[in-house]
Amino acid sequence: MWAAGEEVVVLRGEGELDLVTRPEVHSTVARALGERPGPPPERAAPAPALVIDIGAATYLGATVVAALVEEAERRPATRTPRLVVGRCGPAARVAAILDLTEAFDVFADLHEAMGGGDAQPRREEGP
């Protein structure tokens, strides 16, 4: 759970997320988090928490999934991004097949991801 008053950035991707939109993933995350190219500056305040909502995606290409994982890996270990995939649809199927819980805390909807109803991240159990 996040601390009271903690800054949270919510990004939403919808429609077809594919090779054409991949560059936008990196630039949108960087812009939203106030990042600049080059090594990360020393921050007095922690980086904002990141929630990426792709539950409304109608198509989710492998290149965008890779870009999302790359962005997750750039976050500090203590700041696991939250990924909203919906209850069914392309994003939910991809998250289940690829077990994106290694890189993200995965939630079915934005309300849960923001802590509504004391939701816990969805974890897929392996064999």
Question: What can you tell me about this protein's structure?
Answer:
By secondary structure, this protein is of the alpha/beta class. The protein has one domain (8-34, 47-118): STAS domain (Transcription Regulator spoIIAA), CATH 3.30.750.24. Helices cover 29% and strands 22% of the residues. It contains 4 helices and 4 strands, in the order βαβαβαβα. It has helices spanning 22-32, 62-74, 90-98, 110-113; strands spanning 8-17, 49-60, 82-84, 105-107. It comes from Actinomycetospora flava. Pfam families: STAS (PF01740).
**Count of helical regions:** 4
- Beta fraction: 15-25%
The structure class reads alpha/beta
Distance between the termini: 28 Å
Query: What is the mean predicted local confidence, pLDDT?
Result: 80
Name of the CATH class: Alpha Beta
Major sheet summary line: 4 strands, parallel
Give the overall silhouette: globular
Overall number of strands: 4
Helix and strand sequence: EHEHEHEH
Protein name: STAS domain-containing protein
Domain STAS: 6-117
Organism: Actinomycetospora flava
InterPro entries: STAS_dom, STAS_dom_sf
